[in-house]
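Please check these two lines:
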Amino acid sequence: MNTLKISNVSKIYQTKNKKKFYALKNINLDFPNNGLVSIVGKSGSGKSTLLNLIAMLDSPSEGELYYMGRSYSSFKRKEKPSFYQNEIGIVFQNFNLIQEKTVLYNVTLPLLIKGIKKNKAEELAIKALDKVGIKVDQFSKLTSELSGGEQQRVGIARAIVSKPKILLCDEPTGHLDISNSIKVMDILKGISKERLVILVSHNLLLVKEYSDKIIYLSNGEVTKIDGRHKLKEIDIEPSSISKNNSKWTKDFFLSNFKKRFKRNLFTSFCLVISFSMFILVSGFINGKDKSISNTCYRQFNYGSGSISKEEKVSGTGMLNLTKSIRPTINELRNNKKITNLFEICPNFSTILYQNLTICYDEQPINELDYKPIYSFKNDYVDSSLIIDGYIPKADSLKEVVINQFAKELIKKKIGKEPVGEYLTIKSKFTNNYVTEDEEYITDIFNFEQSVRIVGVVKELNYLSSEKIYFSHLALEDYFHSSIMFNLSTYNGYDISWFDYVINSPDISIITSYSYNLFLKDYRFRDTLVKDIDFGNSLSFSSESLLLTNSLKDFVDVAEYGIILFTIISFVGSVLILGIMSFVSYSEDRKTSAILTFLGSRDKDILDIYLGESFINGLISLVLSIVFSILLEKIINLIIHKNIELSNLIQIPFISLFGIKFIFPILLLLFVVIVVFLATSIPILFSKFKNVKEELQSL
């Protein structure tokens, strides 16, 4: 069986006028298994077109080519690399060597692509180089340093090192002087004894001297076949099975990275910004809730609030009118969530705060807020907040604690440290009561306390005010002991202001339309934050929770902006990486074409640029981790200084979702995916000139 057969092959191109042009027309040829067969003819006769069809660099418009009895059209794309590795070698007029690689490496490369180990590949490459007359002292030279004749011989060595069945030579002496041309033809003649050599040439003298068979082409048709010598054909040995191996791509992507170092440095810089932002945003999302909670817990009256009930007054359709009333004490006591978490107390706000004044030596300090806590006992207050003085050991209205903002204000007003100083708290409330006999009874609630400042607590800065904290239990005792004299005389028994508030109708303003709730243990704060829905139209209002939610909203708005900026940065960096990979691939398209005809797979060529990008990605990731750790500390310091949020950014390098070191693993996986997609998509969807055109270009 002949190695190569061409049956009724035509190659048709369409002219600008949309007319058919036959580059080859009805070609029928049988080639021997060995010998030197030359194809000659004038320029445009179809010689190179025929050679490209045989090399599987182009496809016929009509007819079929057969290799070892198998039609070319039956070869799938994934089989072509094996065809180039084992069956066919090509020697080009313009050499098509990889100029930045050494002589030995160029000849070793086809074997490395086939999966042959480096030591064995170099041994075979040295034999091939010796066969074409390349000396040992030239092995380490770059091919760009060789003369034209030497480069052509290196090209022949590379073409024969894999021992292909067919050797195609496209004008192998076209750029050589007569001396080098004879050397090359001598080499090809020697090779033709072992395999089929098909040569295209304009040099008719050399062709006639060396060829065993000459095929004459004119206007795309065979005009003559000159069988000059009777060949003693050899048997064809079956090809060895090639193993896929991509280790050789490492040399290319490492050298590419060095060659384009400045460009890769710029790409890495962009990726560092993007990855650092991604890491910091991840730390922000991971740490914000805990940071806000821990920061907002720094309120001495955290968990103090009031609870009211919403009652529908009227409404139709989408419009409903409601009013707030005080829920019944039984409603609250029957709610396990409330009784488990809170102390339930009457709300004295209407009476106490209506005309409240705070003075120092008769000088009003109007900016101060008088705020209740349930008790100064340990379970009710967080003693770690104290920064000066002490927390009262007993519940008394005579001793109070202030926050640091109140301290600064009072100090400014009185000109000295406030701890140990006394303030006067005054309040006066007039209550008119209408009896069943429509008589008006008036009682006046007078509240006047000289209170000593015994301690200072440090609270968060965000939207905080100047506060004085007193014991609600002590205030209850005061209300118990304060008698409504006129109302008591009318009823014939003592009625305290405490009794009056408790027994007033739930719709009365005296009740402040609510009860006060105080956490039984300040350590219940987490439970309060997570679940404050008490159901049954009950509405819990807390200044500390309002402040927490306000801070959360502020951070959430910042989060949206940061995430948007990160997305823009990320998209920009990915585009830059993709563009840089595409540009690199564009610059190397000639090399890619050479690697293709040497038998590399599409995956191998993609791996070269993926490898270069992965180096960029890994370097960027390492720098991003170092950079983000540094930025985490700086940003947290700045945020803490301005709004006192502690550790807002907490990058979860150690643990995430309870799994140790999962975040770095996910981060590495993320980088791999980003690099792969950014590099492969533009390359896979790019539309370069085909391999044939690239190989024929100078």
The radius of gyration is 46 Å. The mean pLDDT is 89. The chain has three domains: 4-240, 256-297+552-696, 305-541.
